[in-house]
Structures are given as C-alpha cells and as structure tokens.
Amino acid sequence: MELPDEVVATELIGAFVDFDDRTRLLGLVCVVDAAHLLDDLHRDDYLPLRDADSGIAAPLAARAQLTVTQIEYASTIVLVNWKVLTPPDLAVVMALLNHLSPHARLRLHQDSLERLEPGQAYSVEQDRPGWVRLLNGDFDPHMTDPRVSALRYEQVRPLHPGRLKHLLDDRIEPGEFGAVVRSAGFCRLATRPGIVAQWEHIGRVIALNPLAIDDRLEGEDELLALGQDLAFIGLDLDHDGLVAALDKAALSDAELAAGPAAWVRFPDPFPTWAKAADRSE
Q1: Could you tell me the residue range of the domain that residue 270 belongs to?
Q2: pTM of the model
C-alpha cells in the first residue's frame, strides 16, 4: 500500500496491530530524497491529518515531525536522488538516517527493481527510533561519520522555562552548537511541578506535551523521568557546549532552594497545558 505524507507512522502501526490476529505489518518502507533530507527535516509548515472536505475539523501536524517519525519507524529506507551528492555528503546522509533509525535497512535506489524482504512483524511496543534506543542505553548505529553524533543529556533539576525558550530560539536553532536535527525525550518545567512532559523537537519545530502527573501514579507505576532525560542527534555537535547551555537553563541553587511556590511565578512563554490531567489518564 502506498500511503500519503500525512500518515502518522505510529498510528498506522497501531491500526495493524489492533486489526485482527491474522494481519501483520511486516514492513514499512520510507522513501527519502537524499539531496533534500536536511531541508525536509527543517521545514516548519503543517499538514492537516484529515480530509478538509469531510466536514470534520482537521488537526494539524508538523510536516517535519511526520517525516522524522516515518523515518524512525521504517523497516527499510530507500534513498532516491542520491547520485547528485558527493561521496562525503552521501556518507553524512546515510549516517544521519542510521542514527535516527538504527533498525532500518538502508537502500540506494537503482535503475533496476530490487526485492524488499519483509522483516519481523511490528508489535505494540517499539524501540526503533534512535532517540529511544539512546535513552535505553542500547544505541549502536552501524553507520558512522565524523560529522554525525548523538548525545544523551540527564539533569535532575527542573528547567527554567524562560531560559529554556531563549536557549532554543536564540542559540540552538541558529546553530551555535552545531545542527541539532532531532531531539526527544522527557523533561520537567519548574513552573509546572509534578508533571513529566514529552520533549519532541525536529529541525525548527518543538513541542512539549504533558505525559504524566506524579500524584496520579499508582503503586506499581514508575516515573518516566525524575528530571530531564533527552537525546540529541545532529551534525557537527558541540557536546560540551550544549550540555553546559542546558545546565544553565536548569534551576540554580538559589532557585531550587526557593521551592515550587516560587517556581510557579517564573515567566513561562510556552503554551498552556489546558488538558494536562486528561492526557495523563
């Protein structure tokens, strides 16, 4: 089946898993324009997820987010338009794709047809994305390049939202620490104590969405993260500089000692989580 750009890969996988016991999703092929991969991952436009003619309000999704998710959950990535790249540039593209999706087979599209062998059936639990494997301590991409690297950042202190916004907009996005192509994981904003958020960033698009509320955890539930647990993947990354900048975005000793009653008064430029409680259920 050929699927449109606006398909959310995780929802597709879930639909096949839940369909019936006889149906299995054995392969998900993602076709990547090698010459324009970085441009595609840095787009900031949005696509409607439903047909506007249906009369149903169409939720929007960032095109770059849809693209990276299709890459991360692919079983096979086929590169087209790769012959226009120099060998060093092609090596960078392939290493980046392998960091984003370590489980995927990479194929260079040739003039002749190639048979794609199906792999193991997809299941509900997926650890295909590189950022997931990095946070799980099981990240070992087989294709490397000196320009491509990954970093895991851990910090128990909550983040100051004002300083975080400045870091994202004025330092990370302009490329002060190299090109951060993808970052994802879990974080906590000081102004929203007791809530673990999912950090989703690709290129020029970032979203922080509430995942769980601490005081709603039951006996056997585990915290998703005590503080920050983030994976960064990119080109020419300055690991030390990025870690130092993230540390400065976390609460200082004095701010930490002031406690949550003072934290909630910090300037917070991020969108309100109006339905945080509902999303945690």
Answers
A1: 148-279
A2: 0.89
